[in-house]
Amino acid sequence: MRRPLIAGNWKMNLSRSEAAALAEAIAKQVDQYPAVDIAVCPPFVYLEVVSRAIAGSRVALGAQNLYPEPSGAFTGEISPLMLCDLGCRYVILGHSERRQWLGETDGFINKKVHAALKAGLQPIVCLGEQLAEREAGLTLEVIRRQFEGSLASLTAEQMLQTVIAYEPVWAIGTGRVATPHQAEEVHLELRKLIAQRYNPEIAQQVVIQYGGSVKPDNAQELFAQPDIDGALVGGASLKADQFLGIVAGMKK
Ligand code: PEP
User: Fold this and answer.
1) Of 155, 169, 204, 252, which has the fewest CB atoms closer than 10 Å, so is most exposed?
2) Which atom of ligand 1 is nearest to the CA of 171?
3) Cα–Cα distance between 111 and 43 in angstroms, integer?
4) Active site members
5) How far, CA to CA in Å, does 31 sit from each of 1, 148, 149, 247?
6) DSSP run (H or E) holding 101
7) What is the largest CA-CA distance in the chain?
């Protein structure tokens, strides 16, 4: 049985004290939602303060990136072991902003996914098509290519530890959310790809989130789709009431 996961991607936002206050406000209220797993993913520099703020609560800690080596001469980078040391459970990998602005390829993302899993972190692997690709009818082709590339060579056990976030690029930060039907079509395709590579039982167990302009007023209809297991939330995760409003939309 899949447990839905709602994770906040705080991106490069907030001050240290704002991050602590937001984490505390979320942690205080999560007990109302025992059927949903909840995570917050602050910037690296706030992981420790947020970890303290959520201590003893059901809120899990996630990071927004890692470098796929355990240690060494990689100036400015952060290793999977450092994230574990700070109490992270999740790490967001392959976000479209990193693919777009930092040139991350499926091959590099795949290295990060393996490094995360080796360290005991659960990767939240983002994939999704650009607007031009959707308009050209290439959505499922792009999804298949990103799935094969970013998630290459995972054992069945590793696949089960991995969360996939379907995030159509045209819906991220734009206020233009995918319709439940558009999202469900891709989620179903992802489950088919997992079933083909592994088996249908594994496909039924992998958590597949939707991401892209999720808000309290559109969450419920997205979550009502059979293959949507929660959300990766950007903008609306920066306000406790909005983030918890999205969590409240999960009634499955
Ligand atoms: C994201 O960046 O992962 C995201 C889903 O952003 P937003 O919710 O702001 O569209």
Assistant:
1) 155
2) 10
3) 21
4) 95, 167
5) 20, 37, 38, 11
6) helix 96-101
7) 48
The pLDDT value recorded for residue 233 is 98
Q: How far apart are CA 124 and CA 120, in angstroms?
A: 13
Q: Which pairing describes strands 122-127 and 90-93: parallel, antiparallel, or unpaired?
A: parallel
Q: Provide the residue type at 33 as one letter.
A: Y
| Atom in ligand 1 nearest the alpha carbon of residue 236 | 8
- Ligand 1: centre distance to CA 173 (Å): 5
| Residues 33-52: tens digit of each pLDDT | 999 999 999 999 999 999 99
Mean of per-residue pLDDT scores for the chain: 97
Task: Pick the closest to residue 122 from 158, 78, 90, 150 (CA basis).
Answer: 90
In angstroms, the CA 126 to CA 93 distance is 6
Q: Using one digit for the tens of pLDDT, what is the confidence trace for 129-175?
A: 999 999 999 999 999 999 999 999 999 999 999 999 999 999 999 99
Mapping DSSP to helix (H, G, I), strand (E, B) and coil, where does residue 66 land?
A: coil
Q: What token pair was written down for 134?
A: 């959707």
Phi, psi of 124 (to 5 degrees): -105, 105
- Please name the helix (run of DSSP H) or strand (run of DSSP E) that holds residue 125, with its range, or none: strand 122-127
| Residue 1, pLDDT score | 79
Q: Which amino acid is at 6?
A: I
Find the mean pLDDT for residues 114-130: 98
For the full predicted model, state whether its pTM sits above 0.70: yes
In the prediction, which pLDDT does 252 show?
57
